[in-house]
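Researcher: Sequence recovery benchmark, item below. Answer with residues only.
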């Protein structure tokens, strides 16, 4: 298996974050939207879920079209499957961990304003996501350069919808599935020539 040791170490840290969330799930519920238990009674769930999938496909497409590859990686197809599933599950929980940390900060300072609690969570998530991609993934993945402005815009929008689905609807399984899909397409693009003919730069 060609998956790097540093990636496995990162996944262990993500597993720790997952365990912390599960162990403190009763407290976690207090950080979510007070209406989050009304999942199937809210028509907004279907709209939010649809927007989440659209944003995920759009971000994947933008990445493929506007990312310049300088080399093709060495992963086999089995590596792509393992990476996509494992990272999609574990890193999503790491993202949620940092989102919840921001929600906690917002909760203890602005406990009566649920919208600001969500914004604090989103900011915390964006900070971690930006740092982990800039300081870790760019060093581990095959050499490439995405179109920065376009990718930041689409990733920020997709991330906002993902965290909204988690905070408002507790739709963790749904956003994990979205994360698995985008990892499969992105990592597949970097390690295979599937979409090379579609690149615009």
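Model:
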């Amino acid at each position: 298996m060609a998956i790097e040791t540093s990636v496995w170490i990162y996944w262990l840290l993500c597993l720790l974050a997952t365990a912390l969330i599960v162990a403190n799930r009763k407290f976690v519920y207090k950080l979510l939207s007070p209406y989050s238990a009304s999942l199937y009674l809210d028509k907004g769930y279907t709209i939010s879920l649809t927007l989440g999938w659209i944003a995920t496909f759009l971000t994947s497409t933008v990445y493929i079209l506007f990312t310049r590859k300088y080399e093709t990686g060495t992963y086999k197809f089995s590596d792509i499957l393992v990476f996509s599933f494992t990272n999609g599950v574990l890193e999503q929980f790491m993202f949620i961990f940092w989102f919840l940390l921001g929600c906690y900060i917002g909760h203890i300072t602005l406990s009566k304003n649920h919208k600001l609690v969500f914004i604090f969570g989103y900011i915390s998530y964006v900070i971690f996501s930006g740092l982990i991609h800039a300081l870790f993934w760019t060093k581990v993945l095959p050499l490439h350069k995405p179109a920065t402005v376009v990718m930041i815009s689409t990733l920020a929008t997709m991330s906002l919808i993902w965290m909204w689905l988690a905070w408002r609807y507790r739709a963790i399984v749904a956003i994990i599935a979205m994360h698995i899909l985008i990892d499969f397409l992105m990592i597949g693009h970097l390690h295979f020539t599937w979409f090379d003919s579609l690149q615009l730069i």
